[in-house]
Specification:
Helix content of chain A: under 10%
Distance between the termini of chain B: 40 Å
GO molecular function (chain B): nitrile hydratase activity; transition metal ion binding
Keywords (chain B): Iron, Lyase, Metal-binding
Order of helices and strands of chain B: HHHHHEEHHHEEHH
Shape of chain B: globular
Mean pLDDT of chain B: 92
Largest sheet of chain B: 2 strands, parallel
Distance between the termini of chain A: 30 Å
Low-confidence stretches of chain A: none
Number of domains of chain A: 1
Largest sheet of chain A: 5 strands, antiparallel
Oligomer: heterodimer
Structural class of chain A: mainly beta
Radius of gyration of chain B: 18 Å
CATH class of chain A: Mainly Beta
Strand order of the largest sheet of chain B: 1-4
Mean pLDDT of chain A: 95
Strand content of chain B: 5-15%
Enzyme class (chain B): lyase
Catalytic activity (chain B): an aliphatic primary amide = an aliphatic nitrile + H2O
Strand order of the largest sheet of chain A: 4-3-2-1-5
EC number (chain B): 4.2.1.84
């Protein structure tokens, strides 16, 4: 299966607070980032953590966030490993 | 099973879990002993140091290590049969990397050994993503203002290890002597060499 997001794709994470386990930390909810690279494929932790055997196996991506977007300040970057369904592509504004 | 559990509540809980895992056929006692042995006797920062020293002395190995960390450390006998993926991130004159797991305490155990208690502390986990420059300064690592810092927060099955910069004036050293210079904190990114 081809990866949905190539390296360099601009994405945004989901903004809400799910009523179950998730691997998208609160500090990175609803934030814009850029895909660094596709990583491994893995069962979606949000469902597998509930003991469900039907958790879909998704592509996981390394996604880079600017500190300014996460915290409103700072010049560093944070990279998170995020399942594909956490992400939506951000259309190019040009 | 190892026979040296104390009677603490956590030890009783672990024993009960082991019994259940065996009863349900998830794991055999022998397999569990193998895994524990591999962790206890095989997991030490000397492994990560050996990988780093090889990368410093063999440019082709370094290129493989940075493009596919898992395959490159398997060449040296590490991570055989593991399900995790390894990504090695390189420090340079202008770029510094540091690793964390803000959600729990994920760590490349097989290359770095058991993690230090501060790595699992809420203070480190919450602060290093927010203000890494200040946290690194508290470790005694004062980076130039124009050094680009990247914090790698392991939130899935990838584990990260930092490839530190090779210290100056070490041209004459053997791979073994170089490995002896590499510290655990340098592999995490909270120290330079």
């Amino acid at each position: 299966m081809p990866d949905r997001f190539a390296a360099g794709t601009r994405v945004r994470t989901f903004p809400y607070d799910p009523p179950h386990h998730t691997r998208l930390p609160r500090y990175a909810r609803g934030k814009p980032g850029v895909v660094v690279e596709p990583e491994e494929r893995a069962p979606l932790a949000d469902l597998s953590a509930q003991g469900r055997a039907d958790a879909p196996v998704e592509q996981v991506y390394a996604v880079r966030f600017a500190a300014r977007d996460l915290w409103g300040e700072g010049d560093h970057h944070v990279v998170l490993d995020l399942w594909e369904s956490y992400l939506e592509e951000v259309p190019d504004e040009r | 099973m190892s026979g040296d559990h104390s009677d603490a509540a956590i030890a009783r809980r672990v024993r009960r879990l082991e019994t259940l895992l065996e009863e349900k056929g998830v794991l055999t006692g022998a397999r569990l002993d193998e895994i524990i042995d591999a962790f206890v006797t095989g997991a030490t920062p000397a492994n990560g140091a050996r990988v780093v020293a090889r990368a410093w002395t063999d440019p082709a190995y370094k290129a493989r290590l940075l493009s596919d960390g898992t395959a490159a450390v398997r060449e040296l006998g590490y991570m055989k049969g593991g399900y995790e993926r390894l990504r090695v991130v390189e420090n340079t004159e202008n770029a510094h990397n540091v690793i964390v797991c803000t959600l729990c305490s994920c760590y490349p155990l097989f290359l770095l050994g058991p993690s230090p208690s501060w790595y699992k502390s809420e203070a480190y986990r919450s602060r290093v993503v927010r203000d890494p420059r200040a946290v690194l300064a508290e470790f005694g690592l004062h980076l130039p203002a124009d050094t680009r810092i990247t914090v790698w927060d392991s939130s899935a099955e990838t584990r990260y290890m930092v490839l530190p910069r090779r210290p100056a004036d070490t041209e004459g050293l053997s791979e073994e002597q170089l490995a002896a210079l590499v510290t655990r904190n340098a592999l995490i990114g909270t120290a330079a060499l």
